[in-house]
Amino acid sequence: MEYKYLIVTKDVHVAVVQINRPKVLNALNMDLMVELVDALEKLDRDRDIGCIVVTGNERAFAAGADINEMTDVDAMEMLYRDQFARWDRMRKIKKPMIAAVSGFALGGGCELAMICDMIVASETAKFGQPEINIGVMPGAGGTQRLTRAIGKVKAMEVVLTGRMLTADEAFHYGLVNKVVPVEYYLREAVSLAHEISSKAPVAVRLLKDAVLKSFDTSIEGGLEFERKNFYLLFASRDQKEGMKAFTEKRKPEWKGR
User: Fold this and answer.
1) In terms of pTM, does the model score above 0.90?
2) Which range of residues forms the domain containing residue 132?
3) What is the pLDDT of residues 231-246, one digit of tens each?
């Protein structure tokens, strides 16, 4: 599929998906979201790819949804449009995703960054859910993921006032992994992706599953899920290779099986 609003590149076992609507600060319209889901799902099926980086440009990761597509829409049309079904599909991507964020990550852009598993931010990054300023609220997980990431009281402040968090604030509250100078943010994200993609693919997949499960269940249910995934890895060739390589003091050769 040829993409109008995305640039997809591959670097060994890492893929970079760049949102490319610079004239509108990478606003997320429906056509762009169709492309994004298509690209992510194809990369998820690509056995050569171990980790995916999602990014925008230095000025904006994504400044929110395209409001022009919603201004004159009524509730029934929104219901049948079911635009958030695409977000559910992105949530089911099995491979780790890293958001490389510079500039604005607002509304849907902030939600897109949070649906990723890690966030590397430039010093200019600004995160927020400003939907309150146009009389609505987040609809793609903003109230849920932001609260889990930074806590109730700070999330309440962000969503009820519409104010933006600076990159340093986002790091302080645990929303992002690291903050780096703007000229290095994508390089840092890709470097992290390469480190992850060098690990055993099956273990990476089951680890992501287990961490995400902690948000959906009790500690007892999460521990049970973790143990089942742990036992399952002993059916993989990579587990045998990893432990054998450790005892032989050599680098393992992963097969993803």
Assistant:
1) yes
2) 6-197
3) 999 999 999 989 999 9
Where among 158, 177, 197 does a domain terminate?
197
Segment 68-81 mean pLDDT: 76
What residues act catalytically? Answer: 65, 108, 111, 131
Residue 82, both tokens: 């079911």
Secondary element (H or E) of residue 221 = helix 219-233
Tell me which residue of 138, 85, 146 sits closest to 115, measured CA to CA: 146
| Residues in CB range of 54: below 8 A, 6 or more apart | 17, 19, 40, 97, 98, 99, 100, 112, 113, 116
3-class state of residue 241 by DSSP: helix
Residues 216 and 89 in one domain: no
Coil, strand, or helix at residue 199? coil
Domain of 231, CATH number, reads: 1.10.12
Domain count, the chain: 2
How many whole angstroms separate alpha carbon 224 and alpha carbon 211? 12
Residue 80 and residue 180 share a domain:
yes
